[in-house]
Amino acid sequence: MAMLPLRQSVTVNRYSTDGWGNKSLLKTFTLKCRFEEGTKLTRKTTAQQPGASAIIADEVVSKAQIYLDKYVDIRMTDEIIYTDEGGTARTYLPINIKRIYGLNGKTALTYVEV
């Protein structure tokens, strides 16, 4: 049993690359997971006059975390496809892969940031 409820799933595409840099699909597999996503808007402002400010730039940061049960062979070169409840499919590439270990020394969770 997983530490977290795993009610979503992701599809992972693993590719192989030949000596020329051409990618070919090696295998595809589906994993149960917990998928959490969010978007954050940050704005840089400057004060032009007392009491008034102008927006110089907007920056939108979108990120998602994927929690997988126990040890999962996920690689930085894998392509992760998540389909949300609305039916929209999004493709992600891993940014960070982290293993969370239990007291017994075995992997309890695999944490992937995309």
UniProtKB/TrEMBL annotation:
Protein name: Phage head-tail adapter protein
Top-rank lineage group of the source organism: Bacteria
Lineage: Bacteria, Bacillati, Bacillota, Bacilli, Bacillales
